[in-house]
Amino acid sequence: MKENKSIPATNFPLQGGRGLLVILGAGESGAGAAFLAKQKGFDVFVSDFGAIANKYKQQLQEWQIPFEEKQHTEDLILNATQVVKSPGIPEKAPLIKKLREKGIPVISEIEFAGRYTNAKMICITGSNGKTTTTSLTYHILKDAGLNVGLAGNIGKSFAYQVATENFDTYVLEISSFMLDDMYQFKADIAVLLNITPDHLDRYDYKFENYAASKFRITQNQTPADHFIYCIDDQATAEGMKMHGSNARLHPFSITNELESGAWLDRETLIIQTNKQQEPLTMSINDLALQGKHNIYNSMASGIVAKVLELRNDTIRESMSNFRNIEHRLEHVAKISGINFINDSKATNVNSTWYALESMPKGVVLILGGVDKGNDYSMLADLVKQKVKAIVCLGRDNARIHEAFKDILTEIVDTTSAQEAVYVSYQLAKKGDTVLLSPACASFDLFKNYEDRGDQFKKAVMEL
Question: Mur ligase C-terminal domain spans which residues (predicted)?
Fold first, then answer.
């Protein structure tokens, strides 16, 4: 196998085509953007300050796209016509500041790729639930026979799909970091699930800045477009007063009956987006995704389907047979009458709150990892109601002990997935649930949340 070598910036040949497009970050989105840019006639150079995964190095070599890793050659980068930036690179990074000072446009992969497709855009954001809602929406549309792609924070790069596929519709999971670098891009259908404090270090520790970022999902929308949002979410309701929307509004609520949108009549879900059409009605007990937060997710996906005028029977069937994504409230196994649930994707406290809220009593909760300044107090009531023991999975668990020592007598430290599963199994009894929902990032003991979830599942199956 040939050795992977970067192509030195000094050897980079300018072809004089559509200008130099530099891509910062060579992950899934960066590699895809590079491929699309080359296809569209740009001189392309990829630069990653870290090491590039072999998979993406091989792709860039096959496509004959110059790249560098473990460095940024500023002289070259600062001569770019435009820059496509990985969502993970913060605005405060010195190189980004220099690009801004020179007036060089810095955009996201979504912004760039959106210029080269006329497909209908369904864009979903929110602090919690966006992966589940994006996956469910895609599932409903695909089941209905639409020619639809899945991209954004999930699946294959949007740019790569624009370059290689010909979808009529895309369902895109969009993070606030992506939204920050989107300008002309427009969602035909925008979904905002909720806004809760997350990633505040990227927003000067100001919640209002983070909320404003989320509302960029509505930018450029016209009265011909649609905005779907949770009216029960206080931050979203406040944001609507400040930011508003030009689009047709479709709120959803589980506490209030609405004239249009989605709401509950006791245990019946009702979705009405057009008075000339028959509303969708469905028992919440028939939804594939259970728990209050998942009713919200199903409402949002159902409204998208109704806006697209899909048949009620098709929507109902898809919403009842959907299988949740891996690492998000994923049922792993039932062993000795104990349910094991993998929610490794819960990397913040809000996600863990949603997971606990959907559980019955008798939970052994596996919690911990890299703490992003978590406020565990919001979990206190649910822990009192539902949790019998906490098993910590992380190198530093002091803040977890401090938060729950007055609520629980059983708080146990572990340092591997195998140990955490074994200890949890000993603490649980028939009818209980062992829930991995860490509320923390995974980088102290694992490569990423997928690795954490995979190791958890492997350990469960070895019991």
Answer: 327-440
454 in helix, strand or coil? helix
Residue 11 maps to a domain: no
Annotated binding site: 126-132
Is 276 found in the same domain as 184? Answer: yes
Number of domains present in the structure of the chain: 3
Q: Are residues 292 and 338 in the same domain?
A: no
pTM: 0.77
Query: What sign for the dihedral angle of Cα 131, 135, 136, 137?
Result: positive
Asked whether residue 423 falls in the same domain as residue 310, the answer is: no
Report the alpha-carbon distance of residue 332 to residue 340 in Å, rounded. 6
In contact, 319 and 136? CB cutoff 8 Å? yes
| Alpha-carbon dihedral sign for residues 99, 104, 110, 112 | negative
The CATH number assigned to the domain holding 127 equals 3.40.1190.10
CA distances from 421 to 66, 352, 460 (A): 45, 18, 6
Residues 134 and 225 in one domain: yes
Cα separation, 329 vs 361, whole angstroms: 16
Task: Give binding residues for ATP as ranges.
Answer: 126-132
Note whether 435 and 343 are within 8 A (CB).
Answer: yes
Backbone angles phi, psi at 23, to 5 degrees: -110, 120
Tens-digit pLDDT profile for residues 285-319: 999 887 788 899 999 999 999 999 999 999 999 99
Q: Which domain holds residue 196?
A: 111-321
Q: How many CB atoms lie within 10 A of CB 318?
A: 22
What confidence tens digit (pLDDT) does each residue in 131-183 have? Answer: 889 999 999 999 999 999 999 988 899 999 999 999 999 999 998 889 888 99
Instruction: Check which CATH number belongs to the domain holding 84 and give it.
Output: 3.40.50.720
pLDDT-wise least confident of 13-17, 344-348, 393-397, 441-445: 13-17
The 3-state DSSP class for residue 158 equals helix
**C-alpha gyration radius of the chain:** 23
